[in-house]
Amino acid sequence: MKAIWNNTVVAESNDTVVVENNHYFPADALKQEYFEDSIAHTTCPWKGQASYYSLRVNGDLNKDAAWYYPSPKPAADNIKGRVAFWKGVKIEQ
């Protein structure tokens, strides 16, 4: 699977975990040069607190376009160390 934004592959892996129709990529599948830490956080009742990354590709910023759960609740342990995308990031095979 590939995560693509701004005509650029920002993550690629054959090992994604699908939860609620989102592909969670292993952290080592991310092309780190496109990722910036964000101060944003949200909370999911069953997964826990999410942290975010923004994407910067070819000078364009996609704020908070990727999220992950640093310490997921037990029910979501299968996505620990994984990152998912939204905000126009296309997921393709």
From TrEMBL:
Signal peptide: none annotated. Pfam families: NTP_transf_9. It comes from Hymenobacter polaris. Residues 1-87 form the DUF427 domain. Gene3D superfamilies: Domain of unknown function (DUF427) (2.170.150.40). It comes from the Bacteria. Transmembrane segments: none annotated. This is DUF427 domain-containing protein.
